[in-house]
Amino acid sequence: MSSIIGVFSSGDASVAALLDDYRWITSIGGTTQLSYSFPSGSDTLWASGYGDEVASWSALVVGEQTQVRSALSAWSAVANITFEEVVDQSSNVGDLRFSHSDAVGADDNGVTVGFAYLPWPKYTSGAEAAESAGDVWLNDSDYSAAQGGNNYRILIHEIGHAIGLSHPHDGAALLEAAYDSAQYSIMSYNRHPDSVFDGRQATTPMLYDIAAVQYLYGANNSYKTADDSYQFATNGEILTVWDAAGSDTFDFSNQSHAVDVSLLAGEFSSVGYLDGEARGAINNIAIAFDVVIENAIGSDYADTIVGNSADNVIAGGLGDDQLFGEGGSDIAVVDVAYEAAQIVFTDQGVEISSSQGVDSLQSIEAVRFSDGILNLLSGDLSVRLADEALVGRVASLYQAALDREPDSGGLNYWVDSYTNGFELMTISQNFVDSSEFSTRFSIDSNAEYLDTLYQNVLGRSGDDGGVAFWLGALENGHSYAEVLLGFSDSLENQQQIAPLLETLNYRASDDLWILS
Q1: Distance (Å, whole) CA 16 – CA 28
Q2: The overall pTM is greater than 0.85
Q3: How confident is the model at residue 43, as a pLDDT?
Q4: Which strands, in side-by-side order, build the sheet including 342-345?
Q5: What is the pLDDT of residues 147-193, one digit of tens each?
Q6: Annotation says 326 is catalytic
Q7: Of residues 384, 335, 380, the one with CA closest to residue 359
Q8: Other C-beta atoms within 10 Å of 170: how many?
Q9: How far is 173 from 20, CA to CA, in rounded Å?
Q10: Angle between helices 150-162 and 62-76 (to 10 degrees)
Q11: Which listed residue (158, 237, 294, 365) is catalytic?
């Protein structure tokens, strides 16, 4: 058996209400590693410390074992704790063991129940755990049922006990009544409000459970570290999202009704419908504390989406949406051309009417249309917009004309000039006429000009066919600016400058394009 250690209470009341007296301390490299097993054979050994349950025990079937593994994974996903399956035999058993027993019945309401032994010491003092510590006992119901039902909730609940969590209504520290439900903790005896109507149950540890188990064992900072996208069932599933890192997205484009979303950590969203779409789910999707979800994609209906302090990108989609930035450098997405939208600045923010609906924006710094980005901070409308492709063309001109990467001030000056009416050819002419160009390059003939462009843009001498083509263009009246733009836009140059342009980002709070 693994060892245990006493638990100090937390100053966070929502965490303290879920802590028991001990936790496991088998640790390798900072990760608590526990074993588990499924008693099944005639040589199964039950040591001292058990009650009547061992007299009528029976093994879990294959489907039930599968769901136990899934429930264990739900805990290891959020906490720095792992579970390794071992064969249950007289010489070796898991720290956690899972069995049925006829001694486990149903409560007064006929609800399926189980129980688990908390981590507790074999002797009054010492770190050795009792043989029964961490063992989970289930009644004779079928625990192979799909996730989302009461039996799967019981598995997660009992494993919570097995690793050191208590009920929020037991002990010296109690959870406030308003929070003592499965909306906040799967360790609660009170159902999530949605469960009253639909019977649906949580499929993960919930908001306070995750905080409590991370207090005991630390967070699993290796879980979901990529740029993850989350979609949710349309039937009102109940869960809490833990995501350790990355630029992540909540995608509600699959939903058949409007959603009410908060990207704030520790807050809830209402997603999906219950009772055959007769009743909207309420506060059924939570974001765990210390999790940052950066982006959201709405449904085709009238959504409400609230961002967080990160740099959010929020696409409302169809419908009359209300979008709130809540800090950071935030961009709303309206998938129509700039000229196809009507934009009105109001006392509260900005209202955008288009074929997608009427979207109300507050605390959002910019809007991405299909043809570029409009910054909202000035309260003025641009003549036209710039997108990554246009900014990339301006950045390419720096390499072509000046043989260097663009400085931030110059890049944004010329992008602003474009959005205020300058043509790209005019910008190219300004590069040719600049003092930097004339200072850096002494050009006395068309041939010298072309040689400069070949070296600056393509890093090589001109091939005979290319030189002849461009000399002919210049001799036929094409300007230096036209040829410069042609070199700059060439496929060969675009391939060379592509790594630089991959670093291009737009910072809405400062209305700046940045190469980082």
Answers
A1: 26
A2: yes
A3: 83
A4: 260-262, 304-306, 322-324, 357-362, 350-354, 342-345
A5: 999 999 999 999 999 999 999 998 789 999 999 999 999 999 998 88
A6: no
A7: 335
A8: 14
A9: 10
A10: 60
A11: 158
